[in-house]
Automatic annotation (TrEMBL), chain A:
InterPro entries: CO_DH_flav_C (IPR005107), CO_DH_flav_C_dom_sf (IPR036683), Diverse_Substr_Oxidored (IPR051312), FAD-bd_PCMH (IPR016166), FAD-bd_PCMH-like_sf (IPR036318), FAD-bd_PCMH_sub1 (IPR016167), FAD-bd_PCMH_sub2 (IPR016169), Mopterin_DH_FAD-bd (IPR002346)
PROSITE patterns in alphabetical order: FAD_PCMH
Protein name: CO or xanthine dehydrogenase, FAD-binding subunit
Organism: Blastococcus haudaquaticus
Record PANTHER family: XANTHINE DEHYDROGENASE SUBUNIT C-RELATED
Keyword annotations of the record: FAD, Flavoprotein, Oxidoreductase
UniProtKB/TrEMBL annotation, chain B:
Keywords: Molybdenum, Oxidoreductase
Positions of the Aldehyde oxidase/xanthine dehydrogenase a/b hammerhead domain: 22-127
InterPro entries hit by this protein: Ald_Oxase/Xan_DH_a/b, Ald_Oxase/Xan_DH_a/b_sf, Ald_Oxase/xanthine_DH-like, AldOxase/xan_DH_MoCoBD1, AldOxase/xan_DH_MoCoBD2, AldOxase/xan_DH_Mopterin-bd_sf
Source organism per UniProt: Blastococcus haudaquaticus
Pfam hit, one: MoCoBD_1
Protein name as it appears in the record: Xanthine dehydrogenase YagR molybdenum-binding subunit
Superkingdom as given in the UniProt entry: Bacteria
GO molecular function, one term: iron ion binding
Length: 307, 702
């Protein structure tokens, strides 16, 4: 097995184009497990750890137009694919609260220092902790090839099957473009222990008061991470018709519950060793209700702060 | 320098701590045999039952760096008389999934592992028979249980007493297969010099391993040396010889140089034993005041086709509570599974989950405080052996624990306390474990300057034995710890049994005390109390069980009090706090003892909430055979644990007065959690582990 270690993004793309048998490796928290368990024996490993461009995050303002779906004129964080979870927690808790909350639940401190969002997207596991908040925030995945240049794929279109994604064989993930939060975001995860756990189910939600929209992301309860579009539209519509976006009045408990049920209905879970399909659906309903209740309470607090 | 009168009892820091922290304490894999090391990797069967029909090693043999491929066709013949799965590569028959069917020896571990993938194996296989059920027609009564216990015990008319009982309960409890998973994987490094074998090995007692190597390779005991100074945890999985030691020695002989074999984490689920699953029916009868009239504890568990391991699951029920009519039985199913083995408190751990859950259920029916129920059934004598206790302070443990925990005034009603989304409850359970000791020999030498060398083949598997034995020796010799050099973990040292059954300090420590007495006597009588210039060496021996063991019943005791919180929406379970109080006799090292008791209790919480090896009944394997899926408790799962012990001393057990602490902490712990879970939720989970989905199963909602 060859170990390929480019030191610039251009070199990395060139190597990717030449070596279709190479498996890209970032933090290695998934790839090394696969190798250890002999799940695959790639011809080469393409180590992206020495590519400095991948380890940066920057803020791009809305006027520049990075193509993200969110943020009317708002800013977008361009998160290099190789930024580890520990830096997301340290640096981006205010700008990307949902992603930072999810990052805090990843593995152990050692795993959070190694693991990256780019790697999580590359593995495309339905249980990847970063995926639900990226879906809820309306993030866009920036991929690139030496031959065809940059392509931007909405997170909601990026996951194509169990551990499969929309990358072409000659493409690498460059960055994730995540709109900065303009409203509260929440992330919840249920596991069969309190840390170091692969999610039995996970859920993220984001309130986008600027465009009066709601974002969702479901993890570990379908072949891919996915949104719950009907639940999003339902809740946004109900908030709109009750004038709650403006009044910031209390969120009716029945509305949170109905939202939870719609989120659960959007899942297609299976029974496995970590949990039953029925439990996954139930816990999604609970997490969706809770997280939107917490997010709404935060939205109400924001007003008091502003006033 | 300590100014204490005696070192036993003090919370002395581990003497091996600095070396371990610096990485200079050599574990088996890190030993230097003095020559380049070859690496071994194994091919394991993918079927549970059948016969190898095809095995082609040629592609593997052709790989650069491969030194040898061992198969049943070419492996050296081992001596007759090896039990269980130790006759490795001696037959084409397959008895369990994961059985070693070929082994590669190569220049590096990477080459060896790559070559494993180049070996094609075919099988004539039969469907796996791996499902344990109390309805199986092939259940049988073993001749006797592990550690020599009788298979059944029947006193009085149990069925009659149960039928006549004013209050009774009848419930069935299940515990799953569990795997030990010490942090250090089993590792064996073998080197031959002519016909002499040296094995650096991760085990719980070098002398235990020597015998099987002698048998397997046709050697004299003097031709085998097993060296194991540092071991990274064991929990029973390293007590006996497993295929790894035989393979390393066999491979080293074939290739003519040192070979090391370190198991992978996944191999830990098939090659080094597990705890049997159990199905236990408990029936209790009592009078209206809660005095037990009958106890019946019937156990169904499994063993392997090729080895009988009969776990002594109902034995704690034979000693814990008084009742005139009593019955315990054990029945086994022989399944296509790897051989089970001992795992921390074999017998007591699953058995106490059932007994102590049933006692809680009985207290509920009686409307009685479960602490009071236990106190009302305190037996004056061992209820089955009809012997006095050496010392027994279970009631004191319960009372002290209740006070420390804040049990008084507890509302008996379940499911009535909430804090936000959390349902809150508390539970109690007793703990017990036998107090024993085993034969051990010891040599103590003193030089002219008053420096002592204490030699005994004891084992420190992470317990603190290095430190505790040095404390015992220093006290027995009337010196300080710095003047004592301890040597353990080597079969060339005087004989001792392994670390197991909570007998280590009772056996090795007593042998040291006896030998030290002899040495001091000789110094006093022949040398005026001063070490002679040329030094002096004395050999001593502890013959075995205490002379009082036949006339007294000897056990350690404890009581666990646990708070449990259950998320009423998600079913998630938390254990924010617990109190455990022990009657474990003399505590030798307050610091390492606290760690042992805390670790035992935490393993019990882990058993209650997380642990279970899931068997795929179609394909016969353990589905969750790695630590990502076989969950053990993490730091975030363990809350505030208050550990304490009574100031007691059991001189009938041994001259140090200790009862052993390696296992008592886990016994009863899972029941305390399950009982608190019931108090929080009204739901009685009788099949471990208590996972979030079971909350909804019991509510009938999913």
């Amino acid at each position: 097995m060859d170990f390929l270690q480019p030191t610039s993004w251009a070199d990395a793309l060139a190597v990717r184009a030449e070596r279709s048998d190479a498996v890209p490796i970032a933090g290695g928290t998934d790839v090394m497990v696969d190798l250890n368990f002999d799940r695959r024996r790639p011809g080469a490993l393409l180590d992206l750890g020495r590519v400095p461009e991948l380890r940066e995050w920057t803020v791009e303002d809305g006027t520049g137009g990075v193509g993200a779906t969110g943020g009317v004129g708002g800013s977008t964080v361009r998160l290099g694919a190789g930024v580890p979870y520990s830096r997301i927690i340290d640096d981006l808790g205010a700008r990307l609260p949902g992603l930072a909350m999810a990052a805090r639940t990843v593995g152990s401190p050692q795993i959070r220092i190694r693991g990256t969002v780019g790697g999580n997207l590359g593995s495309a596991s339905p249980a990847g902790d970063a995926h639900p908040p990226l879906l809820a925030a309306g993030a866009v995945v920036e991929v690139e090839s030496a031959a065809r240049g940059v392509r931007r794929i909405p997170a909601a279109e990026f996951f194509t099957g169990v551990k499969r994604n929309a990358l072409e064989p000659d493409e690498l993930i460059a960055a994730v473009l995540v709109p900065e939060a303009v409203g509260p975001q929440q992330f919840c995860k249920v596991g069969t222990r309190n840390a170091m756990v692969i999610a039995v189910s996970a859920f993220a939600c984001a309130l986008h008061p600027d465009r009066r929209a709601v974002g969702t992301g479901i993890g570990s309860a379908a072949p891919t991470p996915r949104r719950a579009p009907e639940a999003e539209e339902f809740l946004a519509g109900e908030l709109e018709s009750a004038g709650l976006w403006e009044s910031r009045g209390d969120l009716p408990d029945g509305l949170a519950r109905a939202f939870g049920e719609r989120v659960a209905a959007a899942a297609s879970p299976i029974d496995d060793v970590r949990g039953s399909a029925a439990y996954r659906r139930h816990s999604l309903a609970v997490m969706a209700r809770r997280s939107v209740t917490w997010a709404w309470a935060e939205y109400q607090q924001d007003l008091r702060k502003a006033a | 320098m300590t100014t204490m009168d005696r070192l036993v009892g003090a919370g002395v820091d581990r003497i091996d701590g600095p070396a371990k922290v610096r990485g200079t304490a050599p574990y088996a894999y890190e030993q230097d045999p003095g020559e380049p090391i070859a690496h071994l990797a194994v091919v394991q069967s993918t079927v549970n039952r059948g016969r190898i029909s095809r095995l082609d090693p040629s592609r593997a043999e052709a790989l650069p760096g491969v030194l040898a491929v061992l198969t049943p066709a070419n492996a050296p013949r081992l001596g007759k008389g090896l039990a269980s799965d130790l006759p490795v590569l001696q037959s084409l028959d397959v008895h369990y999934q994961g059985q070693v069917v070929a082994a590669v020896v190569a220049e590096t571990s990477e080459i060896a592992k790559a070559a494993v993938g180049a070996i094609a194996v075919g099988y004539d296989a039969e469907p796996p028979d791996v499902a344990l059920s109390p309805d199986r027609e092939d259940l049988y009564a073993p001749e006797k249980l592990m550690a020599g216990f009788a298979t059944d015990s029947i006193i009085g008319d149990v069925d009659g007493a149960l039928a006549a009982a004013v209050v009774s309960i009848d419930a069935t409890y299940e515990t799953p297969t569990q795997h030990h998973n010490p942090i250090e994987m089993h590792t064996s490094m073998a080197r031959w010099d002519g016909d002499s074998l040296t094995l650096w090995d991760a085990d719980q007692g070098p002398h235990n391993i020597v015998n099987d190597l002698v048998t397997g390779f046709g050697l004299d005991a003097g031709q085998v040396r097993v060296i194991s100074p540092y071991v990274g945890g064991a929990f029973g999985s390293k007590a006996f010889t497993h295929p790894n030691q035989m393979l390393a020695a066999m491979a080293a002989r074939v290739v003519g140089r040192t070979v090391v074999y370190e198991l992978t984490r996944q191999q830990m689920f098939s090659l080094v034993g597990h705890r049997t699953p159990t199905i236990q029916r408990l029936r209790l009868g009592a009078d209206p005041e809660g005095r037990l009239t009958a106890i019946s504890h019937e156990v169904v568990e499994h063993t392997a086709r090729i080895a009988e391991f009969a776990e002594q699951t109902a034995t704690p029920t034979r000693v814990l509570y008084a009742a005139p009519h009593r019955r315990t039985t054990h029945r086994l199913a022989r399944l296509d599974v790897p051989p089970p083995t001992i795992m921390r408190a074999p017998g007591e751990t699953p058995g106490m989950f059932a007994l102590e859950s049933a006692m809680d259920e009985l207290a509920v029916v009686l409307g009685l405080d479960p602490v009071e129920l236990r106190i009302r059934n305190e037996p004056e004598r061992d209820p089955e052996r009809d012997l006095p206790w050496s010392t027994r302070n279970l009631v004191e443990c319960l009372r002290t624990g209740a006070e420390r925990f804040g049990w008084a005034g507890r509302d008996l009603r379940p499911g009535v306390r909430t804090e936000g989304r959390w349902l809150v409850g508390t539970g109690v359970a007793s703990a017990t474990y036998p107090t024993r000791r085993r034969k051990a020999q010891c040599r103590i030498s003193v030089d002219g300057a008053g420096r002592y060398v204490v030699e005994i083949d004891g084992s420190d598997i992470g317990t603190g034995a290095w430190t505790a034995l040095t404390q015992i020796a220093a006290d027995a010799l009337g010196t300080d710890m710095a003047s004592v050099e301890l040597r353990i973990g080597d079969s060339r040292l005087p004989f001792a049994g392994g670390a197991g059954g909570s007998t280590g300090l009772a056996s090795w420590g007593t042998a040291i005390v006896f030998t030290a007495r002899d040495l001091r006597k000789q110094l006093d009588e022949q040398h005026g109390g001063q070490p002679p210039a040329g030094g002096l060496s004395v050999d001593g021996e502890l013959p075995g069980e205490s002379p009082h063991a036949k006339t007294h019943s000897m056990h350690a005791y404890g009581a666990h009090f646990v708070e449990v919180r259950v998320d009423r929406d998600s079913g998630e379970v938390r254990v924010p706090r617990a109190t455990s109080v022990y009657d474990a006799g003399t505590i030798v090292n307050a610091k390492t003892a606290r760690s042992q008791l805390l670790g035992g209790f935490s393993m019990g919480v882990s058993m209650a909430l997380h642990e279970g090896s899931v068997t795929d009944e179609r394909y016969g394997h353990y589905v969750n055979h790695d630590l990502a899926e076989y969950h053990v408790a993490t730091n975030a799962d363990i809350g505030e644990i208050d550990i304490s012990w009574l100031d007691v001393d059991d001189q009938l057990a041994n001259p140090i007065g200790l009862k052993g602490i390696g296992e008592i902490g886990i016994t009863g712990a899972a029941a305390a959690v399950a009982n608190a879970y019931w108090h929080a939720t009204r739901l009685r989970i009788r099949d471990l582990p208590i996972t979030p989905d079971k909350y909804f199963r019991e509510l009938g909602e999913s």
